Known about the structure:
The protein is α/β, with parallel strands linked by helices. The chain has a single domain (2-143), classed as Sugar-phosphate isomerase, RpiB/LacA/LacB (Ribose 5-phosphate Isomerase B, Chain: A, 3-Layer(aba) Sandwich), CATH 3.40.1400. Helices cover 46% and strands 17% of the residues. The chain is built from six helices and five strands. It has helices spanning 12-24, 42-54, 69-75, 89-97, 113-125, 132-143; strands at residues 2-7, 28-31, 60-65, 83-85, 103-107. A five-stranded parallel sheet has the order 2-1-3-5-4, with helices on both faces. The termini are far apart. The model has no long low-confidence stretch (mean pLDDT 98). D-ribose binds at residues 8, 10, 42, 65-67, 69-70. The site of D-ribose has 8 residues, from helix 3.
Amino acid sequence: xxxxxxxxxxxxxxxxxxxxxxxxxxxxxxxxxxxxxxxxxxxxxxxxxxxxxxxxxxxxxxxxxxxxxxxxxxxxxxxxxxxxxxxxxxxxxxxxxxxxxxxxxxxxxxxxxxxxxxxxxxxxxxxxxxxxxxxxxxxxxxxxx
Length: 145
Ligand code: RB5
């Protein structure tokens, strides 16, 4: 399965760790940067990563910035993207089951690497439940105008 990952400088280290984790789990990972710790603007990274998801070139994606806040706000401006900022396994599981989130955001300065890998695993292992949750997602999509 194809997935995309990206970060700004604040999330670079965790992004590298999660990219390796995803590859070890057998995912085909496209890394849209950044590629070192030089300062970049997180909306630019969010835009690149989200484009791969909305065009179908990636099934879903992971974004990392310092807090996860800026990059998730940016991602959620893109039509068709449902980005969940996650800091625990329960939320990651539920955002797949109920929101069918297609982008996860992490705070590289907030969440440690082992916890982040467990959070990612919880998302990967969960299934979208559809039904009434699809109706609610349709209402979110209608808000995009
Ligand atoms: C960059 O210093 C920092 O502002 C960014 O990574 C992120 O935390 C913004 O929300």
